[in-house]
From TrEMBL:
Its main location: secreted. The keyword Endoplasmic reticulum does not apply. InterPro entries: AB_hydrolase_fold, Peptidase_S10, Ser_caboxypep_ser_AS. Keywords: Carboxypeptidase, Disulfide bond, Glycoprotein, Hydrolase, Protease, Secreted, Signal. GO terms for biological process: proteolysis. GO terms for molecular function: serine-type carboxypeptidase activity. It is found in: Secreted. SUPFAM superfamilies: alpha/beta-Hydrolases. The keyword Hydrolase applies. This is Carboxypeptidase. Its EC number is 3.4.16.-.
Length: 416
C-alpha cells in the first residue's frame, strides 16, 4: 500500500513538474534593450495545435507587476485583427503592452498606460502564418477563415492552461480590435458553448471587450461611409457611389463595383493616417499604402506606420527572437507585421456578429464595446449603428467622461 502511494505521488509530481517545466523554459529573462527592473514576469513560446499539420501558435504572456499581486488579477487574452496581423506587433508593441520601441529599433521604454497594470495580458499571434505562428502545411495559409481561427484559438487556450495551471479557474476575458471584432465574439461563443454543463470550468470565462470592432457588415458600411463624408474625407458623389455600390455587400469579399468606389474614396482621402485622421502621417507612407491595399481596403491592418517600422526592425533581430523563444522554424523570410497571404486568401467571414452578441448577452456574460472617434478605418459611427441594431434598453444615458478634469470621451450604458 505504501509503495502504491509512493508511485501515485511520484506520478502526480511528474505531471506537476512537466507543466511547470514547460512554463519555466518559456520564461523571458530579459528582452534586448529592455528597461531594468521592470517588476513583472514575462513568458513566451509556442503551443502546438495540430501535430500532423505542424501548426503552432506563438504567445507572449505579460503578468501584472509583482507589487500589484498578479495572482489576484484576471487574465485577458488580446487578439489583433487584419485578418492576418500580429498581436505582438500591434497590441503588445504599439498599443496596450508594457513596452514601446524607440525609433532606433533597438531599445524599449515603458508604456504608462499598459493593461498589465490591471490584468495579466496574454497576446496571441493568430491564425497560423501570422507573425511567429507557423504551420508546416502550406495549404493552411490559403484555407484559413473565421471558423478555423476560432477553433485553433480554443485548442490553444486548452493546451495553454495545462502549461500554466495557476491560471485555471481565474477570471478570464477576451479582448481585441478591428477584425478581431470577429475573432473575439466567435472565440467567446466557442468557450461559452464548451463550458456548458461543466462545473467549475478551467476556462472561467466572464466576458469580452472590443474596440473599433468590425461587427456587422451592413451597419459598418453605412457608418464608415458616413464618417468619411461628414469629416470631409470624400466628395458627395463618391459618398453616394459607396452607398449604392457597397449596399448589402460583403466587407471581406466586396463586389467589383464596391471596390472601384473604395479606390475612388482612397484617392480622395489622400495622404492621411486613416487610423488617426488628425495626426500627422508618417513621412514614409509606403507602409501605410501597403497596409490599405488588398481585399479589404479600410478595415485591414492596424495603426501607425511609423511605429510599425520600429517593430519590424526590433522583432527581426536574432537576439530578440532568441529572448522570445521565437522563430524556432527559422523562417526563410523576414518576420512581418501582417501576412498578405493569410489576409488575401481569407475564406469564411459571416456578415454579422450581432447574433453572437445576443446569445452571449442572454447568457449573462459581460460585454464592453468602445470606439475611438478619430479612426476612419472602423469608425465610431459604424460602432454606434451596429450596437443600436441590438435594440437594447439604455440604463444610463449619454454623458461626458472626465479624467482629472479633462474631457476624455462620451459614455452610454445599455442593459441586457
Amino acid at each position: 500500500m505504501g509503495e502504491s502511494r509512493s508511485i501515485g505521488f511520484f506520478f502526480l509530481l511528474l505531471i506537476f513538474s512537466t507543466c511547470f517545466g514547460d512554463q519555466t523554459s518559456d520564461k523571458i529573462t530579459e528582452l534586448p534593450g529592455q528597461p531594468k527592473n521592470v517588476g513583472f514576469n514575462q513568458y513566451s513560446g509556442y503551443v502546438t495545435l495540430n501535430q500532423q499539420a505542424g501548426r503552432a501558435l506563438f504567445y507572449w504572456l505579460i503578468e501584472s507587476p509583482v507589487s500589484r499581486k498578479p495572482e489576484s488579477r484576471p487574465l485577458v487574452l488580446w487578439l489583433n485583427g487584419g485578418p492576418g496581423c500580429s498581436s505582438i506587433a500591434y497590441g503588445a508593441a504599439e498599443e496596450i503592452g508594457p513596452f514601446r520601441i524607440r525609433p532606433d529599433g533597438k531599445t524599449l521604454y515603458l508604456n504608462r498606460y499598459a493593461w498589465n497594470n490591471l490584468a495579466n495580458v496574454l497576446f496571441l499571434e493568430s491564425p497560423a502564418g501570422v507573425g511567429f505562428s507557423y504551420t508546416n502545411t502550406t495549404s493552411d495559409l490559403y484555407t484559413t477563415g473565421d471558423k478555423r481561427t476560432a477553433e485553433d484559438a480554443y485548442v490553444f487556450l486548452v493546451n495553454w492552461f495545462e502549461r500554466f495551471p495557476q491560471y485555471k479557474h481565474r477570471d478570464f476575458y477576451i479582448a481585441g480590435e478591428s477584425y478581431a471584432g470577429h475573432y473575439v465574439p466567435q472565440l467567446s461563443q466557442l468557450v461559452y458553448e464548451r463550458n456548458k454543463g461543466v462545473q467549475n470550468p478551467v476556462i472561467n470565462f466572464k466576458g469580452f471587450l472590443v474596440g473599433n470592432a468590425v461587427t456587422d457588415d451592413y451597419h459598418d458600411f453605412i457608418g464608415t461611409f458616413e464618417y468619411w463624408w461628414t469629416h470631409g474625407l470624400v466628395s458627395d458623389s463618391t459618398y453616394r457611389s459607396l452607398r449604392v455600390a457597397c449596399d448589402l455587400g460583403s466587407s471581406t469579399h466586396p463586389s467589383l463595383e464596391c471596390m472601384n468606389a473604395l479606390r475612388a474614396a482612397q484617392i480622395e482621402q489622400g495622404n492621411i493616417d486613416p487610423y488617426s485622421i488628425f495626426t500627422q502621417p508618417c513621412k514614409d507612407t509606403s507602409t501605410l499604402r501597403h497596409n490599405m491595399r488588398g481585399h479589404y481596403p479600410w478595415m485591414s491592418r492596424a495603426y501607425d506606420p511609423c511605429t510599425e517600422r520600429y517593430s519590424k526592425v526590433y522583432f527581426n533581430r536574432l537576439e530578440v527572437q532568441k529572448a522570445l523563444h521565437a522563430n524556432v522554424t527559422a523562417l526563410s523570410y523576414p518576420w512581418q507585421t501582417c501576412s498578405d497571404i493569410v489576409g488575401n486568401y481569407w475564406t469564411d467571414a459571416p456578415l454579422s456578429m450581432l447574433p453572437i452578441y445576443k446569445e452571449l448577452i442572454a447568457a449573462g456574460l459581460r460585454i464592453w464595446v468602445y470606439s475611438g472617434d478619430t479612426d476612419a478605418v472602423v469608425p465610431v459611427t459604424a460602432t454606434r449603428y451596429s450596437i443600436d441594431a441590438l435594440k437594447l434598453p439604455t440604463i444610463i444615458n449619454w454623458y461626458p467622461w472626465y479624467d482629472n478634469g479633462k474631457l476624455e470621451n462620451k459614455v452610454e450604458k445599455e442593459a441586457r
